[in-house]
Amino acid sequence: MAVLDILRAPDPRLHAIGIPVEKVDRGVRKTMDDLLETLYHKNGIGLAAIQAGIQKRVVVIDLGERNGIPLKPLLMANPELQWVSPATQKTQEGCLSVPGYYENVVRPLEIRVSYLDENNQNQLLSARDLLADCIQHEIDHLNGVLFIEHISSLKRHLILSKLRKEKKQRR
Ligand SMILES: [Zn+2]
After folding, report:
1. 138 a catalytic residue
2. Does this model's pTM top 0.90?
3. For residues 47 and 135, what is the distance between their CA atoms, to the nearest angstrom?
4. Residue 103 pLDDT
5. Which domains does the chain have, with CATH numbers?
6. 115: exposed, middle or buried (C-beta count within 10 Å: 0-12, 13-18, 19+)?
7. From ligand 1's centre to the CA of 138, what distance in Å?
8. Is pLDDT of 139 > 80?
9. Among the options 80, 138, 149, 166, which is catalytic?
10. Which alpha helices (DSSP H) does the chain contain, by range?
């Protein structure tokens, strides 16, 4: 496993569209493992391959624990929303590609998602609350969409101009 470099906005590669995985083979499995190690290294809860410059529809999610019970990490290829609830939730989101900024995003409260797991098995998962929010955030990445595209353009431009300045100072 390896810790991967994460792209930071603004970066055109973050707007690339992920290509579907034909099969979860050893190569895809390695990408999943690397993403998971990177996620733990950065203390995140979700990471999409696009954020590491890998143009594949692969995401990993680990919410840690719920009510003291550890949750198994979710490794997903080709995740696709099959249903979303009309009811919505407002969640404060952040993103490893938009470091340091947190904004409220409104998304469906409950979802049903299909995907291929790390053993190339078809899965259908129902999720709500934070897990549903996180899955939707990661699927957005596979379509080249950052969470700041769900907030007002004024706020988005402010965040992007600050990130641009930070990038310049770092060089
Ligand atoms: Zn993100």
Report:
1. yes
2. yes
3. 10
4. 97
5. 12-170 (3.90.45.10)
6. buried
7. 6
8. yes
9. 138
10. 26-41, 129-142, 153-170
